[in-house]
Amino acid sequence: MYLPIAIVASTNGKKHGVIIAVISALLIGPYMPINVELKIKQDLINWILRLIIYLVIAFVIGFFADYYRQKFEESASKDKKLSEAQMATIYSLVKLAESRDDDTGSHIERVAIFCNFLAKKLREIPKYKDYITDDYINNLTMACPLHDIGKVGIPDRILLKKGELSKEEFEVMKTHTILGANTLLEVKNKYPDNRFLELGINITLYHHEKWDGTGYPFGKKETEIPLSARIMALADVYDALRSKRVYKKAYSHAESVEIIKQGRGTHFDPEILDIFLEHEEEIKKILEDKHTFN
Question: Which of 85, 115, 147, 242 is most buried (CB neighbours < 10 A)?
Fold first, then answer.
């Protein structure tokens, strides 16, 4: 009887442990013989002592179980609040960077929704079902808004230029990927096991890489580019096409889809693009849903 009492008390606390202790004591109640064959009865005092021992075991183990459970919950609550505070700070910095360009609107919220949608659809492909977990999708969705955080380091004369960038200006613009990734890497060095930051670095650094290796900053190609960045690349281009910017008008959904189709196997991962085209009407609705602009 000791083992069941200890298990219940340690997993459910002293209240449940005491209940099981009493039940256990009743099961071997004062009238149960110690030896059935020899018909030797136990003394009442022996049963009372056994009940007391059961209760002490349940209370002591349950007490420490409750104590450490409370401490764990308090610690988890503090960690959650700290994590939420960190996310709020990062999000505020992202919004601050985004506010420098009034035409982007709620770009970071929309691309996060697009990436979430595409990742869920990709998970239906057998080769991705074990890789794209619920945690992956949640972390991807949280990390997406970080993709252009490096633009905070780009001068306004380049970031807000109304016209085509010169070769030199474009080289400066391209550095936003490395600036953003290095910033997040410094944070990750303090939190090395943070999967969210790992995805954020990959997205920030590689979302301008292209499937055929002609992107930047490193010219990576195909599956050398992290999946998160390949998803982000398509979501980012679609939203950019649909949005008015200082250097361009907003394209319609049909126009945007036609432009994106031309990037199959060059700019975009063919599988991700096929998923996008298969569900383009749903993606159109996501963008046009007023809730995505709040």
Answer: 147
Distance CA 114, CA 243 (A): 14
Other beta carbons less than 10 A from residue 141's beta carbon? 19
As a whole number, the mean pLDDT across the chain is 84
Per-residue three-class SS string for 138-188: HHHHHHHHHCCHHHHHCCHHHHCCCCCCCHHHHHHHHCHHHHHHHHHHHHH
Residue 210, classified by CB atoms within 10 Å of its CB into exposed (0-12), middle (13-18) or buried (19+), is buried
Give me the domain span that covers residue 52: 2-72
Q: Is 155 contained in some domain?
A: yes
Residues 258-270 pLDDT 10s: 999 999 999 999 9
Task: Tell me which of 72, 107, 123 is where a domain ends.
Answer: 72
102-147, pLDDT tens digit by residue? 555 578 889 999 999 999 999 999 999 899 999 999 999 988 888 9
pTM: 0.71
Adjacent-strand bridge partners of 35: 40
Please state, as a whole number, how many other Cβ atoms lie within 10 Å of the Cβ of residue 49.
11
Number of domains in the chain: 2
Q: Is residue 54 part of a domain?
A: yes
Residue 192 — pLDDT band, cuts 50, 70, 90? confident
